[in-house]
Amino acid sequence: MDKVRCYGKEILAFILTMGLIYILKDGGITKYVVLMAVSGMFFLYGLKFFKKDFLILGIPSAVYIILGIVVSSVLGNLSYQSIKEIAFAVVPLIAAVSFFVVAQKAGVNFIHGQYWAMVLLTLSWLRYYYVEDVLETQYAFIFGVFLLYFCIVKSDLKSILFTTLMLYLMNKRITMIAAVLMLGIYGVLLWITDRKPDWKKKLPKYISIAMVVFCCAYMAFLCVADLQGQFLKDLTSGRSSAWAAVKDCYQLDILWFGRGLGDMVNLLTELQIPNFTTNIHNDLLKVFVEIGTFGYLIWLVSHFMVCYWLAKKRNLDFRKSIFLYLTIVYTLLNYATDNIMVYVNYWFPAYLLMLMTVF
């Protein structure tokens, strides 16, 4: 009887998750309204299981929002787009926490239902894509996180192989490169810790420093490089042309203050760059332009401070701790050429996956 109840809960989680993913696949404000409504009911249902620590994962988003509002307030350019950026950052975390508290109360594992719902829905949309695109959708990014989860946390070979196939079908180069690189780094970390076990506490710090330095160097490169070169255009599928178009709107300066929360979209609307009228397809550049040099650095560091706090406070084992760190590194690498900061269908399952792992 207990097994029947367990399977019943898993099936309900699968159906509910599939319905939400179907709603979230389209643009517009409707998906945020629906997600917030469902999340509100879930949160009230599992309220006694809520802990403030669940919100720690949202600190980087909070840093971006607060600093962006400060800059916008000083410059006097708070806009409707600023409000949208707040919604993009806040809604996925609230939704993930709400679903997590229900999972805690009802004893449901949303990870499996979430994963297979995404697999089935994504495969069902195959017929709508040209062969050249295969399945190039926003879901490519989250399958990379699932691959890290199945490799690092679960060591589940069947799930690893199937997720690798799904990631290949997505046909998203940066995602595949980032996922393979993370798994390669994980392999190296295992090799090092096998020979020097005492390095388990040092390695996350080195990973954090290396990624912050990389992201700062990447921004310096964007500021000084010839972004109109054919090689870069081919490498970035034309995105570097858009980055070049906004190059005069920011500065490589330690005192660069930023343009304010959401102003990148306003800037693109003003410049009317073909194929890039609403998104620059580079979240690292977007954050740098909007909150300035110091804001950008604080925002980067906050990601790894969250990992450090959670690993220490929850006394996470090496695998779970490294999963958190590498998920953040993977996300930042994808930020370099894409705009997943505004993808609720990336952050909702990603937050939920991290909550299930940490707590």
Model description:
- The chain is mainly α and 359 residues long.
- The protein is 72% helix and 0% strand.
- The protein is built from 15 helices and no strands.
- Helix 4 packs parallel to helix 15.
- It is globular, with a radius of gyration of 20 Å.
- The two termini are 27 Å apart.
Please work out how many helical segments DSSP would assign.
15
Count the E strands.
0
Please indicate the percent range of residues in DSSP E strands (runs of 2 or more).
under 5%
> What do the pLDDT scores average to?
87
Structural class: mainly alpha
**Uncertain spans, ≥5 residues at pLDDT below 50?**
130-135
> Rg, please?
20 Å
In short:
The chain has 15 helices and no strands. Mean pLDDT is about 85; it is low at about 130-135.
Structure characteristics:
globular; 359 residues; mainly alpha; 15 helices
Topology:
Layout: H1 2-24, H2 30-45, H3 59-75, H4 80-106, H5 110-124, H6 139-154, H7 157-170, H8 173-195, H9 203-224, H10 230-235, H11 239-245, H12 263-271, H13 283-313, H14 318-335, H15 344-358
